[in-house]
Design goal:
Radius of gyration: 20 Å
Strand order of the largest sheet: 1-2-4-3
Number of strands: 4
Structural class: alpha+beta
Distance between the termini: 54 Å
Low-confidence stretches: none
Mean pLDDT: 90
Largest sheet: 4 strands, antiparallel
Shape: elongated
């Protein structure tokens, strides 16, 4: 390529030729497997609120279906006030009424501790939504 320095190109060539990338790939697999497992384990705890998801066979995100009466945008706004971000599912579809209770959670750029804290923020929102004082019901799974 003509825009990066020759030194960096030679260093990258050495990285590839010497096979250093293989060790890096093994490390990355371990890191992302641990993050994936943390996310799945934390999401399992939310099933008591009617949250559902299918474990993906790859990628760095998980699609989550919230209970029908939970709007992803409302949850997004609440979570944003607590420094937690995710992508509401509405933005991926043309019919935003059908998918208003879906969210996409990504785990690639956060630590295991941040995953746990983020799911706790979502859980706090759900537990407030279904608090007995509000006379609302807790959905059955």
């Amino acid at each position: 390529d003509i825009s990066s320095s020759g030194f960096l190109q030679r260093a990258f060539d050495l990285y590839l030729r010497k096979g250093y990338w293989k060790n890096h790939m093994e490390t990355i697999k371990k890191v992302y497997t641990e993050k994936y497992n943390t996310m799945v384990n934390e999401l399992e705890r939310l099933k008591k609120y009617g949250v559902d998801f299918i474990k993906p066979n790859g990628g760095l995100s998980i699609w989550v279906k919230l209970p029908k009466d939970i709007d992803a945008i409302e949850l997004y706004n609440d979570c944003g006030e607590n420094n937690v971000a995710f992508v509401p599912g509405k933005i991926f579809f043309t019919d935003d009424t059908i998918y208003s209770n879906y969210i996409r959670l990504s785990f690639g750029a956060v630590s295991n501790e941040e995953i746990v804290q983020g799911i706790k923020v979502i859980e706090n929102y759900l537990s407030k939504k279904y608090d007995d004082d509000n006379n609302e019901y807790l959905p059955f799974v």
